[in-house]
């Protein structure tokens, strides 16, 4: 989720932790404890990891709740803007600080960044 760090900084969005939440049929993410903890459902019903684009969209959704708790027009606009900014960073080759930032495997330098943020296919309510 380090891919979202510059966007969080630009919008002054802060959380203490981003944690995994167990699979459920109700939501994909939660913003807990007065915006201090974001919990994301990382795995589907079979235990496989969800698509990176879905995870990033969920994280942007929960970050938008820091400024707008309801799902009104201001929330929707901010959520879309956060998703757009993450996608723009990916288009420039940014996939996060640190170990994975280059988007290449260490052994053979093959590019593995591939899965960018796709705003389509996300549920209305996360």
Task: Give a written overview of the molecule.
The mean pLDDT is 84. The protein has 3 helices and 3 strands; from the N terminus they run αβββαα. A hairpin with a 4-residue loop joins strand 2 (29-32) and strand 3 (37-41). The two termini are 17 Å apart. By secondary structure, the chain is of the alpha+beta class. Helix 2 (52-67) packs across helix 3. A 3-stranded mixed β-sheet has the order 1-3-2, covered by helices on one side.
- State the distance separating the first and last CA atoms: 17 Å
- Helices and strands: which structural class? alpha+beta
Shape: globular
Helix content: 25-40%
Biggest sheet layout: 3 strands, mixed
Query: How many strand units?
Result: 3
Mean pLDDT: 84
Topology overview:
Layout: H1 5-10, E1 17-21, E2 29-32, E3 37-41, H2 52-67, H3 73-91
Parallel strand pairs: 1-3
Antiparallel strand pairs: 2-3
Helix pairs in contact: 2-3
A few lines on this structure:
With 126 residues, this protein is of the alpha+beta class. It contains 3 helices and 3 strands; from the N terminus they run αβββαα.
Which short descriptors sum up this protein?
single chain, 126 residues, alpha+beta, 3-stranded mixed sheet, 11% strand
